[in-house]
From TrEMBL:
Species per Swiss-Prot/TrEMBL record: Artemisia annua
GO MF annotation terms: 2-isopropylmalate synthase activity
Pfam families documented for this protein: HMGL-like (PF00682)
Domain annotation Pyruvate carboxyltransferase: ranges: 63-288
CDD domains xrefs: DRE_TIM_IPMS
InterPro entries linked: 2-IPM_HCS-like, AIPM/Hcit_synth_CS, Aldolase_TIM, PYR_CT
UniProt name for this protein: Aldolase-type TIM barrel
Lineage: Eukaryota, Viridiplantae, Streptophyta, Embryophyta, Tracheophyta
PROSITE patterns: AIPM_HOMOCIT_SYNTH_1, AIPM_HOMOCIT_SYNTH_2, PYR_CT
A Gene Ontology biological process term: L-leucine biosynthetic process
SUPFAM superfamilies according to UniProt: Aldolase (SSF51569)
Keyword vocabulary terms for this entry: Transferase
Membership in a protein family: Belongs to the alpha-IPM synthase/homocitrate synthase family.
Gene Ontology CC terms: chloroplast
């Protein structure tokens, strides 16, 4: 199974935690078990140099890097950037050989739409390295017609355009944020991925927001319907930094074992660092 991972600027912090003896013993036991587990080796390459295919990586031991500094990274306090700063960073990411640059959230405001469009035109068509690397340029979209249309309007100028569509799948998000039933979420995911395809986009990343706290059977269903509708990458996010490494690794293994059509797409992860485990969780899934 081909893999992709997400990177962006994480904040780090230390804290003092008071726990009971039982809890402490459980944590120590968990860490001891995790430390002893063997790991397979893997390499990181620029996938475009091997003729980029949205839903397939030729060598299964290689992974793709998606950098979302220009989108998710900008949500950090004090990290807002001008259009020129974003363009400069995008050029540097391309020089580093980053496979996919998530350039922004085009539907959020006109300035971001124009910036993503600028990055798509300039960075998404220029050879950044001697090996001919040109990065994929991605734009984020919620599961609604306007967002998907704006994302395509912005990224379509790139040689390798991608739309990243997301919708929440955890019970708490569906009930209190979306105010939607499971059936409505499945239908929305299916129709918006299909709509992105109808626009001419053949590289669609689908994310079930808060996947780590979602009901497993429902998660398999949503992901399977997204694949049927045309998704080429399934991005599994630990949205609130909730999962521990073995827990997140098992989630990926379960998705691979139970999602219809998963063998035909890329599995991607997007881990947050609330508990300081984003890197550990990301590396954990490479064994799955």
């Amino acid at each position: 199974m081909s893999m992709s991972i997400v990177s962006h600027t994480f904040s780090s912090f230390s804290s003092s935690i008071t726990t009971s003896t039982n809890t402490t013993n459980q944590i120590i036991s968990y860490l001891q078990l995790s430390k002893a587990r063997p790991r397979k080796s893997f390499s990181i390459i620029c996938s475009n140099s091997l003729n980029y295919i949205p839903n397939h990586i030729q060598d299964p031991n290689h992974i793709r890097i998606l950098d979302t500094t220009l989108r998710d990274g900008e949500q950090a306090p004090g990290a807002s950037m001008t259009a020129k700063q974003k363009l400069d960073i995008a050029h540097q990411l391309a020089k580093l050989g980053v496979d996919i640059i998530e350039a922004g959230f085009p539907a959020s405001n006109k300035a971001d739409l124009e910036t993503v469009k600028l990055i798509a035109r300039e960075v998404g068509n220029a050879t950044a390295n001697d090996d001919g690397h040109i990065p994929v340029i991605s734009g984020l979209a919620r599961c609604n017609m306007n967002d998907v249309d704006k994302a395509w309007e912005a990224v379509k100028y790139a040689k390798f355009p991608r739309i990243h569509i997301f919708i929440a799948t955890s019970d708490i998000h569906m009930k209190y944020k979306l105010k939607m039933s499971k059936e409505e979420v499945v239908e929305k995911a299916r129709t918006m991925v299909a709509h992105a395809r109808s626009l001419g986009c053949n590289d669609i990343q689908f994310s079930p927001e808060d996947a780590g706290r979602s009901d497993r059977e429902f998660l398999y269903e949503v992901l399977g319907e997204a694949v049927k509708a045309g998704a080429t990458t399934l991005c599994i996010p630990d949205t609130v930094g909730y999962n521990w490494p073995r827990e997140f690794g098992q989630l990926i293994a379960d998705i691979k074992a139970n999602t219809c059509g998963v063998e035909n797409v890329i599995i991607s992860t997007h881990c947050h660092n609330d508990l300081g485990l984003a890197t550990a969780n990301t590396l954990e899934v490479q064994d799955k």
